[in-house]
Design brief:
The complex is a heterodimer. By secondary structure, chain A is mainly α. Chain A has 14 helices and no strands. Chain B has a 6-stranded mixed beta sheet, sandwiched between helices. The chains are: A mainly alpha, B alpha/beta. The interface between A and B is medium-sized, with 24 and 26 residues.
């Protein structure tokens, strides 16, 4: 038991680092994912994750595998997309999903092209799938710092964020906080995707954000509980995924997302709130 | 008589087309006024102007020192996401926004106020229910509880009793009467003329332009209503710039 569940982390430093990184990632990304889901912006996260790639790739082109250049490039690219997508959604009738779909395909193509020109196939794999087993001090600090900013930021904008999801008209009628809160929220999405990018790569970064959130939807009727469950399920996916990867030599990024996916699938089936099994066998109806 | 709302040559509309045209007049503090008129008469547009969500094309609204954000507004179609995981209690508590803002906590006193408001609309016991499980009437009761908490001097209700059963409208009208007795200024867009005659001392009959405004019995005459119906044509795509404005 100990050998399977604890020893890998006790014996190997890279496993401890990976665990610390994924836990920090889950604490930041999972709550963000819950709000993305409730705002019906699940695909926006995906589009932004891909938008980060060309920015990070340009950073890589200019200064090699330098954390700050890549993070800065990713942040800039992410913010540009986030802000323009947000502005377009707020000021036009254009449906966000179509323009974002176009956008993320283009970004992905541009990013892959730049990395392929400037680096090797190994670099490309690093960009696409991350390297959670090779987190250095700087990257760990970046991820932990982003998680901290996220939790503080969410606490600051929590009320307008919730109210803008439930009843945007009411929020507009009592306060002007809706717009700034939305922009701040998009910024938090971007910094979490940059974290996720380093650990899980551009293709899977959204996984640790959205899968725990969609999992939580099947277990809670209340947003606070939903956020907590999402964090727990994100942490669980990180821990179990790393173990899975350690014992079976499945690549660790995909392993983490796979576990998150399994948790999601189980929730779809057995989740207490609207799970398929509960729908199929609802039990006898009540008196009143 | 003090004036709560004064409209000066007010024109409101969309894409330069007026939906409320050259409205002049004043609503006294503590008035209980029904805004009546056919669909497309500009009732909702007028309310959006009063609550500051729509900027006037011309003219102005003087709110006598009340900020637009301090006006309690019940829109005709609330943009509420009913699938959102929030319960009735939290939803009603949002009515305290102007006093609590982003951070202030909801204390024991506030919780009493919230319970009282829920009791006043007959939703005691519904605190923990998800908003998605409410019926249309219960939803409206919940929104009235939130209006109660807003404790506003000016309350604007856009067709509050549409698709609501008689018992619910009677209960909610009781709250409207209470606001009136507390000298709050209440404006409500209404379609049920019998309700207007029974409960609203003052009425504005609107058909883009004001048809009649004053004591309800004098406003809601058959001639005025017919006249209103005829005045309510559609937007004219080729309309000239308004001559009154140019003059």
């Amino acid at each position: 038991m100990y050998d399977t569940l604890v020893a890998p982390f006790a014996e190997f430093e890279f496993m401890r680092r990976a665990l610390a990184g994924t836990l920090a990632l889950a604490f930041g990304a999972a709550p963000i994912g819950v709000f993305l889901m409730l705002r019906r912006m699940s695909l926006v996260g995906d589009a932004m994750a891909h938008a980060i790639l060309p920015g990070a790739a340009i950073g890589f082109l200019l200064s090699g595998l330098n954390l700050f250049a890549m993070a800065a490039g990713g942040l800039v690219a992410g913010f540009v997309v986030a802000l323009s997508a947000g502005l377009i959604a707020r000021s036009t009738e254009l449906k966000e999903d179509a323009s974002l779909a176009a956008f993320f395909l283009i970004s992905l193509a541009v990013g892959v092209t730049i990395v392929s020109i400037a680096g090797t196939n190994i670099d490309l794999l690093h960009f696409l799938f991350g390297s959670v087993l090779a987190l250095d001090d700087q990257t760990l600090l970046l991820i932990a710092g982003n998680a901290t900013i996220t939790l503080l930021g969410l606490a600051l904008i929590y009320r307008p964020l919730v109210l803008e999801c439930v009843d945007p008209g009411f929020l507009r009628s009592v306060s002007r906080a809706g717009g700034p809160a939305h922009i701040a929220f998009l910024a938090l999405v971007v910094i979490n995707l940059v974290s996720g990018f380093h650990a899980l790569g551009t293709l899977l970064a959204v996984g640790i954000m959205m899968l725990p959130a969609t999992t939580a939807r099947f277990w809670a009727r209340d947003i606070t509980a939903m956020v907590l469950i999402a964090v727990v399920s994100g942490c669980l996916a990180g821990y179990a995924g790393l173990l899975l990867s350690f014992h079976t030599s499945v690549p660790s990024g995909p392993a983490i997302i796979l576990v998150a996916g399994v948790l999601y699938a189980l929730s779809v089936l057995f989740g207490r709130v609207g799970g398929l099994v509960w729908q199929a066998f609802p039990g006898r109806h009540l008196e009143a | 008589m003090t004036v709560q709302l004064r409209f000066q040559d007010l024109t409101l509309g969309y894409d330069r087309h007026p939906a409320v045209h050259h409205l002049d007049g004043a609503v006294a503090t503590g008035a209980l006024m029904a805004v009546v008129g056919p669909n497309g008469a500009g009732k909702s547009t007028l309310f959006k102007g009063i609550t500051g969500t729509l900027k006037p094309l011309a003219g102005r609204i003087d709110r006598n020192g009340v900020l637009p954000q301090d006006i309690a507004y019940l829109p005709q179609i609330a943009e509420i996401d009913r699938s959102f995981p929030i319960n009735v209690y939290d939803m009603v508590a949002m009515g305290l926004w102007r006093r609590k803002g982003l951070f202030a906590s909801i204390g024991r006193k506030d919780r009493e106020v919230i319970e009282t408001a829920l009791a006043a609309v007959g939703l005691t016991g519904f605190e923990q229910r998800a908003i998605g499980t409410l019926s249309g009437g219960q939803m409206q009761r919940m929104l009235f509880a939130r209006l109660l908490l807003q404790d506003a001097r000016v309350i604007v209700l856009d067709e509050p009793f549409n698709a609501i059963d008689a018992k619910t409208s009677a209960d909610l009208l009781e709250l409207v009467r209470r606001w009136h007795s507390e000298r709050r200024t209440v404006l409500a867009a209404m379609h049920d003329l019998d309700l207007v005659k029974a409960h609203f001392p003052e009425a504005l009959l609107l058909a883009r332009e004001p048809v009649a405004w004053g004591a309800t019995a004098e406003v809601l005459t058959p001639e005025n209503i017919v006249k209103a119906r005829h005045m309510c044509e559609a937007f004219d795509e080729n309309a000239e710039a308004c001559a009154v404005e140019a003059a």
